[in-house]
User: Fold TAT leader-containing periplasmic protein from Shewanella gelidii.
Amino acid sequence: MKRRTFLISTFTGTAALALGTNLYLSDDLPFEDSHQNHHMIFSVLIPVFLAGALPKVPNLREESIQRTLVAIQDSIKVLPVHQAAELQELLGLLESRLGLLFLTGSMTPLMLRTHAQLINMLESWRFHFTELMMIAYQGLRELIMASYYSCPEHWGGLNYAKPNFLET
Assistant:
């Protein structure tokens, strides 16, 4: 066997094995388990997108993140079907190693990345040359920001007060 043939067949076999494992494992997960993984992805992305808005006190910060996760779930429920499907596809890719490799250039899970690495990843999406990556960035950002500021307890940071309507 020639060296080139060996290298090509090894690479092809490894790629096929990785793809097969990825497809097998992602199809095998029930929706509830993948939904929990979405919580992990969002809990990692929320501090990046809301860096200056989150409270500094650890307990309040964690409460704020948890409240935003609930608001994200509520927001996803009211998305149009095609947008919800696209979001689920993006989150599924972010949960899989091959999807991470394709989207970020690294197979390191988002939960194991540093804050600076996450910022660099999102900034590369924000200014990416393909529109699809920019849309992915904007969609995640808008979902997280809208969910955070949909909670009345977060309006104080905006100096916004709910209007009082006088009944006549």
The radius of gyration is 20 Å. The CA atoms of residues 41 and 110 lie 7 Å apart. Confidence is low (pLDDT under 50) at residues 26-37.
